[in-house]
Design brief:
By secondary structure, the chain is of the alpha+beta class. It has four helices and four strands. The longest helix is centred in the first third of the chain and has 86 residues, at 19-104.
Length: 209
Amino acid sequence: MTSMNGTNAVMLDASTLPDDADDEASDSTEAVVSDAEGTNASGSAERRRPRVARVFVYGILPGLALLLAATAGYLKWVDSTVRDAELARAHSVQAAVDSTIAMLSYRPDTVTQNLAAALDRMTGSFRDSYASLTHDVVIPGATQRQISAVATVPAAAAVSATQTHAVVLLYVNQTTTMGSDSPTDTASRVKVTLEKVNDRWLISQFEPI
């Protein structure tokens, strides 16, 4: 009897545990699970940080460096292209001015040498036409009639220019004197086309407009 009662007492004690004990056990379990999840989350976050850093170092930074290098190269190319175009304009305009003055200026006693030197500033079919005109008309007329001419270019402007081809607009004044007669002044506008040959700007067309 004593044994049975003792057993019942033990069972009675177990069945009559307060609800708070269950709640505390449940809360304790949840806390352990929550701590475990927090630890896992923290560990996962710590594992992600090196991965993100590697992506940044090995992926984003090289991409940014490549983009900056490409941008710098493009800007350098644009700057070089602009400077080349400006140089082409300046040099072609100067060549057009100097060549036109040489073509249209001569003295009767040196006309052959003057126009032969001017011929060296031309190229293509225009050079052939100028050589024929000066040989057949200008040199004989200047020698026989004592004709001299002086050309000036008061204004010049580039119409277009690349590294090998240019078009220049010139305003040309030419003063011509025949013998002892009074000088005659002539003003004209000329469109001069030039080609770059062996690093020299040479006239390929000469058109009064």
